[in-house]
Design a protein that fits this description.
Radius of gyration: 26 Å
Strand content: 5-15%
Low-confidence stretches: none
Distance between the termini: 77 Å
CATH class of the largest domain: Alpha Beta
Strand order of the largest sheet: 7-6-5-8-9-10
Number of helices: 11
Order of helices and strands: HEHEHEHHEHHEHEEHEEHEH
Mean pLDDT: 89
CATH architecture of the largest domain: 3-Layer(aba) Sandwich
Helix content: 40-55%
Length: 367
């Protein structure tokens, strides 16, 4: 071996030794960086908890809201979070004022002593327009409420006038979103969510709207993150509704109000299917939907939205999707929370699997 080859081999061995030494150092540095990040997430959460503790002090009213985001987050997270907040800081119902929309007061009963509906403060068209502006300006088009916006301030002022109060603390949804965002992004453990929520099985005593069958299935099927408008999915949804209607009357929870971004699937022309759209008015549409769900044998709905709450109302639920990935964390929460309080059955119907296994034959509705 020449002196040159020997020198090359020696340098290679030295490089390998350096690389071996380098790896533990890199791992240690990365571990330290992760620890610093985790500490930052925890500090952020602790700051939010201190803010919540501060607003709970005293005896003044606490306005919880205004809730402008999607109903799914409201029923799966916001209301259970408010239960924890009141329990953790000893806030009695007579101090809490819930501000939501569409007649959601039944779901806040026992938690908030008073309820203000946004549609009593602003017309549906105006609220939809102002909320769309807020989402574009503040959330990049998303649903969340990450900060108090001008529309929040306007609605809070109107709510105070209706309540006849001059001040009061505000538990704004941005506090809740700030608290849980690191859980949804995987930066804090799921246990953090479980220790800052309280789930309950709820019984709603709501009157059944007139003209409904004695026994029926409620259905609310619309395009969303987990259910696309692809032709195969639209065809599969029609077949699911048709097969369900062959066993029991189906009442569609259509609203046709244009007050949110959801657009119902067209399942017209299927026998034994009735639309509840004539019963829907903006101010009470969610109250009517909840009343119909609680009186139904089963709820069949797009995965998300009211499909999260139906099991906690004691109604077996079939949640329809063609892609469960966008809602993976929420599915985990819904299932685990439901089991913890013995909620009714929650089943996921993945149209991809049903079609591939030939359980659903979309050729009969190939449009």
């Amino acid at each position: 071996m020449s002196a040159f080859d020997a020198a090359v081999n020696l340098s290679r061995r030295a490089a390998r030794r350096l690389a071996t030494v380098h790896k533990p150092v890199v791992r240690a540095l990365r571990r330290r960086e992760r620890e610093r990040e985790q500490l930052g997430f925890r500090i952020d959460a602790d700051e939010t908890l201190r803010a919540l503790a501060a607003l709970a002090r005293g005896r003044d009213p606490i306005i919880a809201g205004p809730w402008l985001a999607e109903v799914g987050y409201e029923v799966l997270y916001w209301i259970p979070f408010l239960r924890w907040f009141c329990d953790a800081y000893g806030v009695p119902p007579d101090r809490l004022v819930a501000v939501s929309r569409g007649g959601m007061d039944a779901l806040y009963a026992g938690l908030a002593g008073r309820y203000v509906d946004l549609f009593d403060l602003m017309t549906p068209a105006e609220l939809a327009a102002r909320n769309a502006e807020r989402r574009a300006r503040q959330e990049g088009g998303g649903q969340k409420q990450s900060a108090v916006d001008a529309v929040d301030e306007q609605l809070l002022a109107a709510a105070r006038r209706q309540l006849g109060i001059g001040g009061g603390a505000v538990c704004h949804p941005s506090l809740f979103f700030r608290l849980f965002r690191h859980v949804w992004h995987g930066n804090l453990p799921m246990d953090f969510l479980w220790t800052h929520t309280r789930y309950e099985r709820t019984r709603l005593d709501l009157a059944l709207p007139p003209g409904m069958p004695e026994a029926f299935v409620t259905a609310k099927l619309y395009a969303g993150p987990a259910l696309s408008t692809a032709p195969a999915s639209r065809a599969a949804v029609r077949e699911v509704v048709a097969r369900t209607a062959a066993t029991a009357p189906v009442v569609l929870l259509e609203t046709e109000l244009g007050i949110d971004e959801h657009r119902d699937f067209d399942v017209r022309g299927i026998a034994n299917v009735t639309s509840a759209a004539p019963l829907m008015m903006a101010r009470t549409n969610l109250a009517v939907q909840l009343a119909l769900i609680t009186r139904s044998q089963t709820f069949l709905g797009t995965c998300g939205g009211l499909a999260w709450v139906a099991p906690f109302l004691g109604v077996p639920t079939v949640a329809v999707c063609d892609d469960d990935a966008p809602l993976a964390t929420h599915l985990l929460v819904a299932r685990q929370a439901g089991r913890s309080v013995d909620a009714a059955e929650f089943s996921l119907l993945d149209l991809r699997a049903a079609t591939r296994a030939a359980v659903i034959d979309t050729r009969m509705f190939n449009t």
